[in-house]
Amino acid sequence: xxxxRLLLYIKxxxxxxxxxxxxxxxxxxxxxxxxxxxxxxxxxxxAKSKPEVLLLDLSAVPSELNIAMRQLRYYSPRLKVVALxxxxxxxxxxxxxxxxxxxxxxxPLKETLQPAIERLxxxxxxxxxxxxxxxxxxxxxxxxxGCGATTLACHVAYExxxxxxxxxxxxxxDLTSGLVGFLMKTxxxxxxxxxxxxxxxxxxxxxxxxxxxxxxxxxxxxxxxSYSRWDHPDENQLRQVLQFMRTQHDWIVLxxxxxxxxxxxxxxxxxxxxxxxxxxxxVALHGLKTIVHGLFEQGEKLQLVLNRTPKMMxxxxxxxxxxxxxxxxxxxxxxxxxxxxxxSSGNLLNSNSGLAQHFALLASKIAGxxxxxxxxxxxxxx
Length: 382
Ligand SMILES: Nc1ncnc2c1ncn2[C@@H]1O[C@H](COP(=O)(O)OP(=O)(O)OP(=O)(O)O)[C@@H](O)[C@H]1O
Ligand SMILES: [Mg+2]
Hints:
alpha/beta; Rossmann fold; 5-stranded parallel beta sheet; elongated; binds magnesium ion
């Protein structure tokens, strides 16, 4: 099966006919595929089939053009885009070029289309924008309130930065009662909602103004100081903010709050790995089982972490895994006093503590690194 290098996304009937005629013109009949479904399906198709050139009807773009272009390049960083419009409106041309289109063409296309496409198809890849970095996105979700999602998100983000030396972002998506900003000592007047509200002009400099540095290469974007249901972000836009975060950071750690809330559900598809945090408490395990059941189709993306595991468990890890129908990714010990004292003095856990070393082990497992050597011997279980 030959792979089509040229894809058309043109809704305006007259423009479509004119484009097809121009492409079929002898002597250089250029083969193409046409996408006639909606925009999300177009993004999916581009991600899978990676055409080299997209002919994009500007009147068919559902959002602002710079957002649409960012989405296209997110799914296919080397995609070359020819913006098409029936008229040569200077504002539209300027908008297309600013948004990053490789070419702008307007009717009549007879003389201009084939040469433009041939030029793009024969131009080497390095002429297209450099590939967008795609940071890894992981989330922590508490099986019920208070299981430790925030504690894990903060410490794992810290340890991920420590171990990988990469650029890490910790984002609080527990919009109703997020505590990340407080625990990380990063008070801010901005939250993830400000990024959503300013999506159309979100770029590196605006992003830098919204996030707060906890330490070099570990940034935080807290939850809003106050939140009502009217502030609930548009879920599609929220996903776009997450996609943008991937272009700015190597690792993004999300605190998703508790149980399968609407935000956690909305961002699920965007996340690489979801860690469901539970304790051995009956109510928590019940919540855990319900969520595992509900997210059955997520497969390996969903991982279970048992927190505050007592030294002596009434039930063995194997028995628990049998009940849940899944293996545990990690089991972390209980250290209430240690955390209490650290939080009271406004710090994260001291890295010498046993629990902190478990956080480091968990972070190294997530990052796929060999665990750093510690004085004591630790394992993620027991
Ligand atoms: N491994 C642990 N050992 C002892 N205490 C812990 C442990 N992990 C978390 N805690 C404590 O449990 C409490 C709840 O933790 P945390 O706020 O992280 O949970 P959460 O799931 O984010 O809760 P919420 O639903 O309120 O957002 C805190 O007092 C925290 O210090
Ligand atoms: Mg929390």
